[in-house]
Design a protein that fits this description.
With 309 residues, this protein is an alpha/beta fold. The chain is built from ten helices and eight strands. Helices cover 42% and strands 12% of the residues. The chain has an eight-stranded mixed β-sheet, sandwiched between helices. The protein is globular, with a radius of gyration of 18 Å.
Length: 309
């Protein structure tokens, strides 16, 4: 992998269709824009219609002839996930980018009663991927890329308390949701291989990128001093969102990306060009991956046709 890999190295994406969740801002918006720049048709799967359509307009203004469209998707509501998959998706999907997420929020629940970070970051994407699986399996060269985080190292999954009901600590819950992303990719890649499928399931993380993800939690609680500290960190330490999107774009488009790979800034750095990233050993645990998968099927009611343990 070249140390200097950047958006100009993205292969031609003409004729391909990409779905990017959370594409209205941050690295999701950059990911969608750069895929459109290389010729892909891009669906911006977002919760807020106004912001989603504004993002589509921004991409069209930046990229002449960009083929982009908003589709409604609220990952905190499984009914919305099902409606999105059933009514707003094309027959061919080449790239599914599971990008949307929330971070370190005060305790809350999704429409279906799941702890919000676990519900949005993992269960919503688990359901969406399963519902779109037949389209992915039918598309040669398809990939599923899930955006995790180096913060997965904060905690392994607690199978006895997936909803953090016994003791909610926002950063631990966030770390568990990002571990869940990696366990999902690990188990999905294992099941795809067992089924003889060439669909690639891979993971990426942006390092420390300046987006509104960092400020959402403190703004919800009106913690002005904490918000100023976070904003200062974004200005002085973080890399721009355009750099944070590169690992996702690499995992989605670069030739030779391996199933179950984890791409991020080089080694343990929070910034830099895409490279193989360190991941905790518990995210490669077959038993944990299968247990989380079974629990996720039960919680969401979504099964994966054609993929067995």
């Amino acid at each position: 992998m070249s140390q200097g890999w950047n958006a100009s190295d993205i292969p031609d994406q003409s004729g391909r269709t990409a779905v990017v969740t959370g594409a209205n801002s941050g690295i999701g918006l950059i990911t969608a824009r750069e895929l459109a720049r290389r010729g892909a048709r891009v669906l911006l799967a977002c919760r807020d219609e106004t912001r989603g359509k504004e993002a589509a307009s921004r991409i069209r203004a930046a990229v002449t002839g960009a083929d982009v469209a908003f589709v409604p998707l609220d990952l905190a509501d499984l009914e919305s996930v099902r409606a999105c998959a059933a009514a707003h998706m094309p027959e061919r999907i080449d790239l599914l980018i599971n990008n949307a997420g929330v971070m370190a929020l005060p305790y809350g629940k999704t429409a279906d009663g799941f702890e919000r970070q676990f519900g949005v970051n993992h269960l919503g994407h688990f359901a969406l991927t399963g519902l779109l699986l037949p389209k992915l399996l039918g598309t040669p060269g398809a990939r599923v890329v899930s955006v995790s985080s180096g913060m997965h190292a904060l905690s392994d999954i607690d199978m006895g308390d997936l909803n953090s009901e016994r003791n909610y600590r926002r950063w631990i819950a966030y770390g568990r949701s990002k571990t869940a992303n990696l366990l999902f990719v690990h188990e999905l890649a294992r099941r795809l291989a067992a089924a003889g499928s060439e669909v690639v399931a891979a993971a990426a993380h942006p390092g420390y990128a300046a987006t509104n993800l960092q400020t959402a939690g403190v703004r919800m609680e009106n913690r002005k001093a904490a918000e100023r500290v976070v904003e200062l960190g974004n200005r002085l330490i973080a890399q721009p969102a355009s750099a944070g999107a590169l690992p996702t774009l690499y995992a989605a488009t670069a030739p030779g990306v391996r199933p179950d790979s984890f791409t991020g800034p080089r080694l343990l750095s929070w910034r830099g060009a895409p490279a193989p990233s360190w991941r905790a050993g518990w995210t490669l645990n077959d038993v944990a991956g299968e247990r989380l998968w079974v629990a996720s099927e039960q919680l969401t009611g979504v099964t994966y046709p054609g993929l067995t343990p």
